Amino acid sequence: MFNQQYQNYEDIPNVQDRLRWCRHHMGLMQKEVADLIGISRGHYIDFEVGYVDYYPKEIVDKLAALYKIPVDDLLDDYNRFLYKGQGKMIREYRESLGLQKKPFARLIGVDPNLLRAWEADQKRMNINSWEKYFKNLIKA
Predict the structure, then answer these.
(1) Above 60 in pLDDT, residue 2?
(2) What angle do CA 97, 103, 108 make, to 5 degrees?
(3) How far apart are alpha carbons 112 and 57 in whole angstroms?
């Protein structure tokens, strides 16, 4: 039924269902995909079931290559933001406003130390923070 619901993976609104659609259309089992990209079956299942909201770049690259689709087509907006480099994207946006870190942190309502950690890629931004502060500001 899932495969009949969507004709194309681009029509699927979330990463986990896109992964499942691609795997089914290649006729692969979860264990086979996991082996091909070098992770455990349980870890891959977490991706397909949606137990994670973050997909590491090295795994996304392997999945996109396996499924022969562009990375941008595989990811949602949040994961595309992380994939393309959250720090770089935040910094470019802040600089486009002509602001230093402290004034920008005050403007968006976050602690300047947290902003520094995000920009330095020392701390991954969670999906709730992304939705609150950047979802409508920065397009990946």
Answers:
(1) no
(2) 80
(3) 26
Q: How far apart are CA 10 and CA 27, in angstroms?
A: 19
Is 81 exposed, middle or buried, given 0-12, 13-18 or 19+ CB atoms closer than 10 A?
buried
CB 55 within 8 A of CB 37: no
C-alpha gyration radius of the chain: 17
SS3 111: coil
In this predicted structure, the answer to whether residue 9 has a pLDDT above a threshold of 80 is no
**Tokens coding 120:** 């330095």
DSSP 8-state assignment for residue 126: P
Give the C-alpha separation, 122 to 114, whole Å. Answer: 9
* Tokens 């701390």, located at residue: 123
Q: 136 pLDDT exceeds 90?
A: no
Q: Considering only CA atoms, which of 14, 13, 9 is closest in space to residue 24?
A: 9
Burial group, residue 102, by CB count within 10 angstroms (0-12, 13-18, 19+) = exposed
Mean of pLDDT values over 55-59: 95
